[in-house]
Design goal:
With 81 residues, the chain is mainly alpha-helical. It is 57% helix and 0% strand. It has a domain of 56 residues. It is built from three helices and no strands.
Length: 81
């Protein structure tokens, strides 16, 4: 099967990891030159993109939870569905 979603960079995110580890990997994959607010938003968008393209319900649930976490940290709320 051909994969059409090609992320720009590898994060090391795996659904079997603890939430703290998954979120650390996402944050480490962001641009270090940006402010923490912008890095939180970038990490949230990476997780949200993963949740939107996956067909695995567990991956989608965990990626959305990580995205909400980063959006809340950035002050953008976490009430997305």
């Amino acid at each position: 099967m051909e994969k059409w979603f090609k992320p720009k960079d590898k994060t090391g995110w795996k659904k079997g990891q603890k939430p703290k580890t998954r979120r650390r990997h996402l944050l480490e994959a962001t641009d270090k030159r940006k402010s923490m607010h912008d890095r939180y938003v970038e990490a949230g968008r990476k997780a949200w993109a993963l949740a939107n393209v996956t067909k695995d319900p567990a991956t989608e649930r965990k990626a959305r939870a990580d995205a909400r976490y980063f959006f809340q940290k950035a002050g953008k709320g976490g009430d997305r569905k």
